[in-house]
Design brief:
It contains 12 helices and 13 strands. By secondary structure, it is an alpha/beta fold. The chain has a single domain, classed as Alpha-Beta Barrel (TIM Barrel), CATH 3.20.20.140. The chain has an 8-stranded parallel β-sheet with strand order 1-5-6-7-10-11-12-13. A 3-stranded antiparallel β-sheet has the order 2-3-4, with no helix packed on it. Strands 8-9 form a two-stranded antiparallel sheet.
């Protein structure tokens, strides 16, 4: 049976302090365990969504992983927890709480879980401090970040020292959409998740390319959620824009954006065989990693089903199901035996 590593798996602490009351403001999330095995996520003072215990209980996660044939889950927080809008010290307090909880879960079963931390990206110095703590003290393998930070895109110079430190620490980065653009214009039909999220991921990839992040930090290991969002299907348009209007596009990096194809990883949440083949032909099967978005419904209910049903050869499938993830994380297969 194939070794499966799910790089896109969200987790929350079972108990989250009521940061809204503690800080006196904001849409911070806490959990109301209103009935056995279920909790309501409360955003500020309002109901946000109901979740099942697989969102916080490691035993349930392992049991469901065994049932679905997943060997390792890479744990990252739910993006609504990023709290980039908060006052910096408050954001740092939230991040520290989440990171220590993830580390506790990983340390409890290191052969089943890998951890990614979160940072208070609204403040550079606090983020650098927390990044060091995540990697050096907690032993996490990297960080999860949003596709933008308030009004800053990932090309902003304020964020570059954080990427540089991540490269120095050999930390993996997972970029996940959040706070979707145009939210107020498309609340109906769940469009922020169906349209906004793919656009956010393309925004993040283009920002890192055009901002020169990949050019200046060639050893930075970054994976993007949801198969790269709308980026793969629009790379032709992106490259054409670079060629015909370099005065507008190539202002910070003169390198053709297509040169960076294969420099970053994408997860496999594409829900369509033709899409998977297209993306694999573009970036290479060695740059696609299994991702499920567990435990949420927009993800892949049967982990690896899309990859396993594809026409790729056995070795390519083995890479996409698990081996590519180990390369992105800079971990070895033997660590999970």
């Amino acid at each position: 049976m194939s070794f499966k590593v799910d790089i896109h798996s969200h987790i929350l602490p079972e108990i989250i302090p009521d940061f809204h009351n503690e800080f006196g403001y904001g849409d911070f999330i806490h959990l109301d365990h209103h009935k056995p095995n279920y909790a309501n996520m409360i955003k500020g003072k309002s109901f946000f969504r109901e979740i099942y215990c697989n969102c916080w209980d490691p035993k349930v996660r392992v049991s469901e992983s065994d049932e679905k044939g997943v060997d390792v889950q890479v744990l990252s927080t739910v993006p609504v927890m990023f709290s980039y809008w908060a006052k910096p010290k408050d954001g740092a307090r939230v991040a520290r709480y989440i990171n220590e909880d993830i580390a506790k879960t990983v340390n409890g079963q290191p052969n089943r879980f890998v951890g990614l931390g979160t940072l208070p990206l609204q403040d550079q110095e606090l983020s650098l401090e927390e990044l060091d703590y995540c990697i050096k003290d907690l032993g996490l393998s990297g960080i999860e970040i949003g596709t933008h930070v308030n009004n800053l895109n990932l090309s902003d110079p304020e964020l570059f020292p954080i990427f540089k430190r991540a490269e120095e620490l050999n930390a993996a980065i997972f970029v996940h959409p959040w706070d979707m653009m145009g939210f107020d214009k498309m609340e109906k039909y769940w469009l922020p998740w169906l349209v906004g999220m793919p656009a956010e991921t393309s925004l993040a990839i283009c920002s890192m390319i055009f901002g020169g992040v990949f050019e200046k930090l060639p050893n930075l290991r970054v994976a993007f959620a949801h198969g790269g969002g709308s980026f793969p299907i629009t790379i032709g348009r992106i490259e054409h824009g670079f060629n015909v209007r370099p005065d507008l596009v190539a202002v910070d990096n003169p390198v053709n954006p297509r040169e960076y194809i294969g420099r970053f990883w994408l997860d496999s949440i594409l829900h369509d065989q033709n899409a998977l083949k297209f993306v694999a032909d573009l970036v290479g099967t060695e740059k696609i990693c299994l991702g499920t978005d567990y435990p949420f419904p927009l993800g892949e209910a049967e982990p690896g089903e899309l990859i396993e049903a594809s026409s790729f050869d056995f070795n390519s499938k083995e890479r996409m199901l698990g081996l590519n993830a180990l390369e992105w994380l800079n971990l070895s297969r033997s660590q999970f035996d």
